[in-house]
Specification:
TIM Barrel; 8-stranded parallel sheet; 8 helices; about 35% helix; globular
């Protein structure tokens, strides 16, 4: 039996002036909604804050909100974000000098804690943190903007994380974000990824729901054969 793969369209690529209709255009073909929070410092872009996350939660109370903090010193804003109801709250290992404390704080406040690394960061940095997380996010592009090309060697990080998860009897999910679409989603899933984040590949398509269904079919066929 194939693993269950989860699909998390990134609202970074949705229509900012028509966000509600963008979410409804998915027609329930997704599993999570991925929200990229950028501060203009850790990455060269500025996007959403706690108010936006809270508005999405209020309008779509049943959605799984996967909030990715691409911000410096995320510990400053953990309480603000947790208070608006995300399901997963992910911080970057590169952005926090006391990452274990921050991850513990997320869990203490009732959230599921995630940790992420950029393409230039070794997965070895994550190994001591694996007992304390619910999600590991591997960036397969340099973060900051949508529509970038997939960096294929990042698959090796997912493979290693999957091995460590098995060896340590951990239960964290492995997520990948950046440059994923019809052309490579099956490969990403076969490499051990549980959650596929896709932005422009979904919201840039004429029919986002249909595109998601097609990607699901491609991935299922590939993983069933594996």
């Amino acid at each position: 039996m194939s693993r269950r793969i989860l699909y998390a369209p990134s609202l970074l690529s949705a229509d900012f002036l028509n966000m509600e209709n963008s979410i409804r255009s998915l027609e329930g073909e997704h599993d999570w909604l991925h929200l990229d929070v950028m501060d203009g410092c850790f990455v060269p872009n500025i996007t959403f804050g706690p108010g936006f996350v809270g508005a999405v939660r209020e309008r779509f109370p049943r959605e799984v909100l996967d909030v990715h903090l691409m911000i410096d010193h995320p510990e400053r804003l953990i309480d603000d974000f947790i208070s608006v109801g995300p399901d997963y709250l992910t911080v970057h290992a590169e952005a926090d000098h006391h990452i274990h404390r921050t991850l513990s704080r997320i869990r203490e406040k009732g959230g599921k804690a995630g940790v992420s690394i950029n393409p230039g960061t070794s997965e070895q940095l994550l190994r001591p943190l694996l007992p304390f997380v619910d999600l590991v996010l591997v960036m397969s592009v340099n973060p900051g903007f949508g529509g970038q090309s997939f960096i294929q060697p990042m698959i090796d990080k997912v493979t290693m994380l999957s091995r460590w998860r098995t060896a340590g009897h951990y239960s964290f999910l492995i997520e990948m974000d950046g440059g994923i679409g019809k052309h490579n989603a099956a490969m990403v899933a076969q490499g051990g990824t549980d959650v596929l984040v896709m932005g422009s590949a979904v919201f840039g398509a004429p029919e986002p729901a249909r595109t998601l269904r097609e990607i699901r079919t491609l991935v299922k066929e590939a993983t069933d054969r594996a």
